[in-house]
Amino acid sequence: MKATVTIMFKNGVLDPQGEAVKSALVGLGFFDVKGVRQGKIIELELAEGADQNQVDKMCQQLLVNSVIESYTVEIL
Amino acid sequence: MRAAVIVFPGSNCDRDLVVALRKTGAQVCTIWHKEKDIPTNLDLIAIPGGFSFGDYLRCGAIAARSPICKAVFQHANRGGYVLGVCNGFQILIEMGLVPGALIRNSGLKFLCRTVYLKVETQDSAFTANFSKFEKIQIPIAHHDGNYFITDDQLKVLRGEDRVAFSYQENLNGSIDGIAGVLSPNRRVLGMMPHPERAMSLTTGSSDGQALFRALVGLTGAA
């Protein structure tokens, strides 16, 4: 089984890379872009029987810094 | 003063820290991150700058889960002194020994220059030899030194006088210009600037000496 963890900066945390991507897009003429947030996706390959609970523990212990980041888990 | 400098794959300021501590009179050993134990009777553990584990995942995140870090954590909980510089600060944050987070510099550039810091408190073993609000010159060299902390945590930090240093000119977007913070018991200091690179006027500044002299002076030269 597989799980996908999507990690994003929390609202209120400045995302300098997202801001840079935004200004580059606007520079290319995409004036409809009002905001860009950049995050990361981690794909996990797991043994059968692993569950969301275990993925949550991985997020809390290593994958996510809860001071600045929030995450969602999708089990495939 | 008996000190140990922890070495991770990608550490690159470990020797500078060893030299700075020895120059001030400490007895220093280095410890590889895979070790599980530290020598007994250590007074100080220093975590150097660099790019541990290539800054993968988040700066300091993987190093903070290295085998040696349990011993570092126990040392801190026993009231031992811990100094984390630059990547060492990022590692201390990831270990939860000091609060906050360090994210990409607001200008997105790697910043490498000597800057002016303001000493915010004299009340620690690290800053006792400075005067309050003294202006000191210390080099910085980082890409992810933008200090983030929630409003509530910032109030606690300020209320307990635990901001050790701030930047005279806020170059990296840090909240309140914060450059270094202390743990609740004031014995753990994490800071982005490099005091170990400010040990001699030959290389620009000797303002870092006061920090190491204060620390080593606590327990005397070994």
> What is the count of helical runs of chain A?
2
Quote the average pLDDT of chain B: 96
Walk across the major sheet of chain A and give the strand order.
Answer: 2-1-3
* Percentage beta strand of chain B: 25-35%
Topology:
The complex is a heterodimer of chains A (76) and B (222).
Chain A: E1 2-9, H1 16-27, E2 40-45, H2 52-63, E3 69-75
Antiparallel strand pairs in A: 1-2, 1-3
Chain B: E1 2-7, H1 14-23, E2 27-32, E3 44-47, H2 68-77, E4 81-85, H3 87-95, E5 101-103, E6 111-119, E7 135-142, E8 146-148, H4 151-159, E9 163-167, E10 178-182, E11 188-191, H5 209-219
Parallel strand pairs in B: 1-2, 1-3, 3-4, 4-11
Antiparallel strand pairs in B: 5-8, 6-7, 6-9, 9-10, 10-11
Protein described:
Chain A has 76 residues and is an alpha+beta fold. Chain A has a single domain (2-75), classed as Mth169, Chain: A (2-Layer Sandwich), CATH 3.30.1280. Chain A has 2 helices and 3 strands, in the order E-H-E-H-E. Chain A has helices at residues 16-27, 52-63; strands spanning 2-9, 40-45, 69-75. The mean pLDDT of chain A is 94. Chain B is α/β, with parallel strands linked by helices. Chain B has a single domain (2-219), classed as Rossmann fold (3-Layer(aba) Sandwich). Chain B is 22% helix and 26% strand. Chain B has helices spanning 14-23, 68-77, 87-95, 151-159, 209-219; strands at residues 2-7, 27-32, 44-47, 81-85, 101-103, 111-119, 135-142, 146-148, 163-167, 178-182, 188-191. In chain B, the strands form 2 sheets. A 9-stranded mixed beta sheet of chain B has the order 2-1-3-4-11-10-9-6-7, with helices on both faces. In chain B, helix 2 (68-77) links the parallel strand 3 and strand 4. The N and C termini of chain B lie close together (5 Å). The mean pLDDT of chain B is 96.
